[in-house]
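Protein Record: Sequence and Backbone Structure Tokens
======================================================

Structure line: whole-number tokens from a learned vocabulary of local backbone shapes, matched to residues.

Purpose: to set a sequence beside its fold so the mapping can be learned.

___
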Amino acid sequence: MTSTPTGRRATVDGLDSIAFDRTFRAGIKDVWAAVTESDRLARWIGEWTGDPSTGSVDFRMLYEGDEHHAELLTIEECRAPHRLVLTSQVPGQELTWHMTLTLLEHEGTTTLTFTQSVGDDPAMAGGVGPGWDYYLDRLVVAETGGDPASVDFGDYHPVRAQHYLDMFS
């Protein structure tokens, strides 16, 4: 969908991260639902199960093949419909991802800013950057009535990997 990488380097809570913006001609509550409700998430990225009021849910990616296992998402902060801070832990791995979603509405247009840390290994940016460009473009397509399957991961990775690696070198 986008012809060039859209992420930018950012420091979030002291962590090296990549930040992405997407703009929607929709109210903030609608965009919040698109990024927090399991049935809406399932259209473009994955689904969660469990009870968010406990502070965590299990999240499973739906578009990365059959081998992807559920991750534990811990809800660090939730100020609906403006801010969501999550950490993700993949079972069997020591790597923890830190993600922040911030939504701002102005005159019926909502901007989503999504950030994810790259961990202790800056080389992770080569996968994180193209991956989020891809998934966030799928979100835009889903929310504008298109078919997210029309977004081809091959247009994002590996062709955009070097751009993101260069950000952290």
